[in-house]
Each structure stands twice: as structure tokens, then as C-alpha cells.
Amino acid sequence: MENILNHIGIENYLFLSVILFCIGVFGVLYRRNAIIVFMSIEIMLNAVNLLFVAFSTYHQDAEGQVFVFFSMAVAAAEVAVGLAILVAIFRNIGSIDIANLKNLKG
Amino acid sequence: MSTVLLIFYILSAFTLATAFLTIYSKNPIHSAIYLVLCMVSIMGHYLLFNAQFLALVQLIVYAGAIMVLFLFTIMLMNLNKEDEVHKPRMTRYAAVIIFILLCGVLTYVFVDTKPIMGEYDVTGQDFQSIKVLGKVLLNEYMVPFEFVSILLLTAMLGVVLLSKKEKSTR
Amino acid sequence: MEKNLVLIVLLAPFIGFLGNVFFGKKAGKGFAGALGTVAVAISFALSVYFFLQVNQTGKPIAVTLFDWITVSNFKLDFGIVLDQLSLLWLLFVTGIGSLIHLYSISYMHEDENMHKFFSYLNLFVFFMITLVVGSNILIMFIGWEGVGLCSYLLIGFWYKNQDYNDAAKKAFIMNRIGDLGFLIGIFILGSMFSTLDYAQLKAAITAGNVDTTKLTVAALCLFIGAMGKSAQLPLYTWLPDAMAGPTPVSALIHAATMVTAGIFMITRLNFIFDLTPLVQNIIAIVGAVTALVAASIGLFQNDIKKVLAYSTVSQLGLMFLALGLGAYNVAVFHVITHAFFKACLFLGSGSVIHAMYHEQDMRRMGGLRKIMPITFATMMIATLAISGIPPFSGFFSKDEILLTAFHANIPLWIIASLASIMTAFYMFRLMYLTFYRDFRGTEEQKHHLHESPSLMTLPLIVLAILSLVGGVISLPFGGSWLNHYLAPLFNGSHAEHHLGTTEYILMAVAVAGGLIGIGMAYAKFLKGGAVPKEDHEMTGLAKTIYHKYYVDEGYMALIVKPINGLARFFRDTLEPALSQLVFSLGSLANGLGNLGARVQNGSIGLYLFAFVIGFSVLFIYLFLA
Lengths: 106, 170, 625
Hints:
The structure holds three protein chains of three kinds.
Chain A: H1 5-8, H2 10-30, H3 34-59, H4 63-93
Helix pairs in contact in A: 2-3, 3-4
Chain B: H1 3-24, H2 28-48, H3 52-77, H4 89-112, H5 130-139, H6 142-163
Helix pairs in contact in B: 1-2, 2-3
Chain C: H1 2-27, H2 29-57, E1 61-71, E2 74-82, H3 84-107, H4 114-133, H5 137-155, H6 162-193, H7 198-206, H8 212-229, H9 238-241, H10 247-256, H11 261-268, H12 270-273, H13 277-298, H14 304-324, H15 328-355, H16 373-387, H17 393-408, H18 410-435, H19 443-448, H20 454-469, H21 481-486, H22 501-527, H23 540-546, H24 551-599, H25 604-624
Antiparallel strand pairs in C: 1-2
Helix pairs in contact in C: 1-2, 1-4, 2-3, 2-4, 3-4, 3-10, 3-15, 3-20, 4-5, 5-6, 5-10, 6-8, 8-11, 10-15, 13-14, 13-18, 14-15, 14-17, 14-18, 15-16, 15-17, 15-20, 16-17, 16-18, 16-20, 17-18, 17-22, 18-22
Membrane topology (chain C): Multi-pass membrane protein
Subcellular location (chain C): Endomembrane system; Membrane
GO biological process, one term (chain C): ATP synthesis coupled electron transport
């Protein structure tokens, strides 16, 4: 079985991951809607997962994929809890604009 | 230019475009749908690597469960109107600048690590079929695996507790 | 065996102290008194045993208990030395101590805190023994501070009276001034010789090659310490005030033992003072002046204990005069006889005060001779002794001091003689006012008058006998036992005075002086029946002297007031300024904090920006820099 990386090259995946991750960061900074922010975070997570899988193939080792599996499980839990929190916030203040969430002020 | 590389480029362009549109769409429902597409394209990358297990999980967890959750939440809040006020201009420019900065920095960092270009190892062993991964997960990683189940259970309980309506009406 | 016995001498009073502290209150007054007395008596018995041994063999008993301090080349053992000098002190500290304990059982039996009293007394004896028997100056310093503490506790024993507390504080603070000098002296000696052990110090100093200037400073500092403890000018004012304590305390601490610690120290370190003639001269002059000034104040005091207090100061001055003239054995002799007759006088006055319902003013007394015959007789003997009438003990010791002074320096002799004439006068004034003519107190007091119980008169009788015959330890007719006994301690024998015509004339002069003083007192107070005027009627010189030359007021104006003023300046001007400074620093930090807090406005967007920028910077720093 041939290695797919012989065709594509690990550096291409690096650039793809980095750009995807930066798009996620950009989204977090750019948008005020908390749900979109959440989605951006998911994009970042996926960028990292993608790199993990790429390196798993690069090293011909399953460990990277196992790790991705765990990170997906955590992401699932995080999304569930995060969205529940958002719902609770929305219920309380009627908005999920992060500009309105000022309770962190000391 | 091999077929595989061509597929990769097309897939990558699709991934980046949908990711960008996720962020850029004004309507949250559009965003959610673009995100689904993005996830599916990433699944495509996994398939390219022949990582079947992860591809399936990606499809089920992200494109299925998580996206359904997102859509549900959006519907619940009735956010499909395009009523979001934009951030101040300053903030938006700053976000763009930081996007470029971070891109540069990370790319530079990874290029700087000088990964081996050209020939890659082929052990010929099967390391990523569902069968092998299952053995690895339930032998070497059994304890973390069980902990993941506890984590999910806890998250579930937490979500139920959080979204339950409080009895006292304030 | 010997080591254990030595330890018992030291620790018996301490055990008595612990016993009284922990069990005294529960076990009752009888137990407290008995325990305290027995503890000291055990020490006394063992002291006698060791004294006899050393007197026979002439060899000091030295016991090293443990290595105490070892810092680079400075090494100090915790040891005990029982030599001729420390044994002599031990004898009268524990001997008179036991008598006074015995006396206190009766004197204090009405006091609810009797166990406390006895525990303090025992602690005092313990520290006094420590002071005396230590093998180096630092141990002496421990005892020195310890007796100071006990003195403070006992002066303020009746702590409900604020005046007494003030007197206690005064004594403590005045002593502290002296102690500082003592401590500095110790430091200088330690830095010079890398040791504080008496024997090693003596060896090092007598070996020569000593920086005399430094040694002089050290000796001066030591003398300042002695000045504080032994109530010499200008640090003497605490002693008369210390009479606020119970009378047995005055007898034990402020007459017989603690105040002689300064003399002990100088005698112990005589090899240092021998090399510093300048300090010796200072000592002699200070002693002589103190003797005269204190005696003159004593002439006009009306409080029976104050008279005795000034007389103590005056006698201590005479001892310092002898020390300054290098006649250490003479000073020691006078310390011993003085301990006898002054303890007797104080206990006698205590007996009188006890009978008079704690009335101390001699103008309210009189005619007690018939009612209190034993007290009267014993006090009379002691008074004759202090006045220098042969063959009482005081005659011999005082006469030796006068002889020494005459041979060394005529003006000092004149001053000392004047002081002893005054002593005779005011002591007999005290006797006449207290015991002769008619009773001047209230009817109620008159009804109450009685002779003291035997527990109180027994110590009086013993002490009176000792004041009568105490002189035999150093008779001037050659072959003085004391001089012989103490000879190993001193460098170069101070040639005994051969009794020639001059000496006999001097003796006659001294006795005549004493008789003149007595005669004047007799004429004025017994024949003339004069009673000192009330406080507000006094005028001129008498008033000045009665108010102790306004020394306390002088100290008040010269030291206390300026310090108070300085303190007020610090409090009202400097402290606000300083706190302004400090507070402004604080508000600066506060302002900076507020400035920083403005960034922390709760906007998640801003936080995220900061987070990402920080992340980028970190990356640049870690991987690109």
C-alpha cells in the first residue's frame, strides 16, 4: 500500500491546517454572535485534528488517530455543554451577543 | 500533477471556502450549513488518508450530532434573522491584521521545523483499519476510553441540568 | 558527686520557685513559706560545706557543665566556679536569704499572694547564685538580668498601687541603662580576648600585650553597669523608690545582696580594673560623691525606709570608694558587714511597719522602745554598727575604708568621714524618732502596737549578733582572716596597714566623728524633742534636700521632657509626613491598578484579542527569536 503523502506532501497539509486554524481565529475575533464563535472554535479543532491525522500517516502510527478520537469526544461534550450554557444565557438576558456579556468585569 | 494531488487541491479549496463562508454568512443557519459542508470536506481528507474509522466518526459526530445541536439551538433562539450588529470598524480591521499575523507566524513556525520533503516511509503494515484501531483503543487506551464515556455522561447530565427551566420564576 | 552537690546549690531555689509557681496556691501559705525557706536553707547548708572545704584546701572548685557557645575561635563553656569570692557571696546570699525567707513567712502571712511572693524570692536567690557562681561574664550577665527582673517583680509586688508599679518600672529602666553599659563592656572584652572566662581572661590580661585604651573603655562600660545595679550617682534614684516593695524584699534585694552585685563584678574582674587607673579614679570619685550626697539626703527623710535606702546608697558609695582605691578586700569586708547590719535594720523597720499598720512616716511614731523591746535592741545594735562605734562590725570595715582613703587621697578621706558622720546622725535620728519619747500616731495604731512574732524576731536576733561580731573576720590588728582568705584572688597584696600612731589617731577621729553625729542627734531629737516639720512647712536648704536635691525633677526636665517632646514631634509632625509618603505610594499603586482595571472591562472580544496576540507573541518568542 502506498503512502498518500508521496503524492501530496506533508507541507501542503501543514499550510491547509494553518490557514483553516487562522480562519477559526479570525471568526472568533470577527463575529459577535456567540454561536458563530462556537462554530469558529469547531473549525479550529478540526484544523488540529486534520494535522494529527496527517502526521499519523507520516509516522505510520495509530496513536495520532486515537488522539483525534479522544479530541472529538471532548469536542462533542464541549459543544453540548457550551450550547446549553448559551441557551441559559439567552433565556436570561435575551441575547447572545458577546458584547453584552460583561459579567467578567472585575 | 497526479490525480491525487488534484483531488487534494479541490478538496482543500472547498474546505477553506466553506470555512470562510461559515464565518462570513450573516444568517446563522447559513453558517451552520456551510459548517456541515466544511466538516464533510474534512471527512474527505480523512478518506484520502484511508482513515476510515475517523472519517465515519467525523461524519457521525460532527456532521451529524454537533450540527444538529447547532441547528436546534439556532432554531430555539430564533436567530435566523440577520439582525446582528457588526463590530466596530477598528475591531474588524484588527481581526484581519491578526489573521494575517497569525497565519504568517504559524506557517513560518511549521516551515521552520523543516519536515522531510520527498520520500516518505511505507511500513506496509496495517495501522489504521477499524479493526486495528479498535484493538489499540481497547487494549492500550482502555482506561482513557472508559473515562471518555464518563466524560460524556457527565456532559449529558450537565446539559440537562443547565437547560432545565428553573422552578422559581424570577 | 561534687558536681551534683554544686548543682543542688544552684538549683534548690529554682526548684522552690517551680514548686511555688505550680503548687503554691493550692498547697496553702504554710507550704509556700516552708518550701521557699527550705530550698534556700539547703543551698545555704551546702554553701557552708563547700566554704569549709575551700577554706581548708584553698583550691577553687570548678565544674564545667557543658559547651555553651562555640563560634569560630570564640569558645565559652557553661561552668560553675566556687572560689573564695563566690563562696563568700554565696554564704551571705543564701544565709541572709534564708533568714529573710523565715521572716517573710510571718511578715507576708496576711497577703493572699504569698506563694507568688515566695516564688519570686526563690527565683531571685537562684539568679543571684547564678550571678555569683558562673565561670564567665556571660553567666554573670544572665544572673544580672535575672535579679533585675526579680527586683522589678518584687518592687511591683503590690501591683494594685500605681505608684508601686511606677517605682518598679523606674528601677527596671534605670537598671537597663546600666545593663547596656555592662553588655557593651562584655562585647568589647569578648572581641579583644575571644573569651569571657574569668580564668582565661585573667591569664590573657596578665600576660601583657593588651590595648590599654580599649581596656579602659571596657572597664568604664563595666563600671556603668555596676553604677546601675549598685545605685551610684547618677543612676541611684531608683533605689529609694524601690522601697515600694515589701520590706523583706528591701532587706534582701535592695540592701544586702542584689545591689552589691556591682561590687562583686568589679571585685571579680579586679585584674581588669587594676590595669586602668583612670577608671579606678572615676570609681573612687563617684563612690565618694555618692556617699556624701546620699547621706545628706538621708538627713531629712521622714520615711523610715527611705532613710535606710539612702543610707544603703551612701554605704555602697563607700564600698565603691574602696574599690576605686584598689582595696578590694576592704570593699568585700564592708559588703559583708553591711549586709548584716543593713538587713537587720530593714527587717527591724519592717517589724515596726508591721506593728504600725503599714505606717512608714517616722513623724507618726515614737516611744516604741517599751512595746517592741527585741526590735529596738536589735536595731540599736545594727545602728551602732553602721555608725562605726567599736566594737561593732561596721566600725572595722568602715574604718578600713577610711584608712585606705587617708593613705591614698586626703580629700576623699574628708568626704568619706563627713558621710559617716552624717550616717551616724541620721541613723540615730531614726532611732530617736521611732523608739523614744511619746507615741505620735493615732489611738487606733497605739492600740494595735505589739511586738512581732518570734518568726520575725529570730532573724533579727541572728542578724544583730552577726552585726555585733561580724568584724572578727578582718580585725585590724594584723593577721586578718579575710585578707588571707581572699589573697589568691588579687594581684599583688595590698600591704596591710601597720597600726602606727597615725592609724590609731584616725580610728579615734572616726569614732569621735560617729559620736559627734550621735551627739547632735541626741541633742536635737531626744533632749530637744524636735519632730521634723510637715512637708509643706519646710523651707530653704532643708526643703531642697528633702526633695533629694530635685534630682528626679532634674531628670524629668533634662531627659524625660525632651524625650517626650521629641516623641511628640515624631508623633505629630514626622509620623503624618511619613504616613503621607507611604500612603501616597499606596495611592499610586491604587491608581495604577485602576488604570489597569480599565483594560479589564469585561468585554470578551477584547480578551480574545489580547489572548490571540499574546499567543502569537509567545510563539514568536519561543520558535522564532
